[in-house]
Amino acid sequence: FVIFFSSDSPQHEILYEWVNPAYLSFEYQSQIQDEFEDSSEILLKDFLKEERFGAVCAALETQSMDWELLGPPNKRCYKKAKGELPDVLSSCMDFLRSEAFFLLLSNLTGLKLHFLAPDNEDSDEGEGSSGDHARSLAQGDGGVEQAGAAARSQEDRVPTCTAELRCWEHGHYTMIHDNGAERQQFALDLLLFCGCEDWEAEYGGFTSYIAKEEDEEVTMGGFLGLKSGLSLDKTDVGS
């Protein structure tokens, strides 16, 4: 199930400003969703437009920013940006928090991350009903507003988002622990790495995921040596 986007919609303009047009293709989104549903993780190469990603990296390298070292040491040690961000970084964070981006993530993962996105069971009702719903969203039918209002009222089903701009250096880490309220249910981790084009696996850095009631640990390389790569991982407990 994939929802169509319209370039004429003011809500969706931010996607066309930031996202590589290839990822706005209906067929490509369906392909990505199938792959993500099979593996619960995916790496999207060159996800952002080259000029936008270049501007973000340049701002991180050249503009002055305030960083706060987070703790306590038994849980984490890394730097988090605080205070006002440079304009391009602030715009990037706004994009990543936008409703349009959450709707795009729903298309890419099949998860209900937006009130207009269907539940997984809804996608089993048949191709015809899915197509009709997608067309109604693209055309802006009045029925969508009513459905959206009803969905918004279901507070227990509205996803939440936390976002940080982090600076990783030698000796920085996070630790898995049991007290994080945000880790008590399934979650989608989205990682966008900047300034790591020349990073090699032997340099170190990794992310581990441990599912509830499972002994097996899944480890992923931490820093992606890919330009504008976006990593998506569906987990229930993570570090």
From TrEMBL:
Residues 12-217 form the Oxoglutarate/iron-dependent oxygenase C-terminal degradation domain. GO terms for cellular component: cytoplasm. Residues 120-156 are annotated as: Disordered. It comes from the Eukaryota. Gene3D superfamilies: q2cbj1_9rhob like domain. GO terms for biological process: regulation of translational termination. GO terms for molecular function: iron ion binding; L-ascorbic acid binding; peptidyl-proline dioxygenase activity. Pfam families: Ofd1_CTDD (PF10637). This is Oxoglutarate/iron-dependent oxygenase C-terminal degradation domain-containing protein.
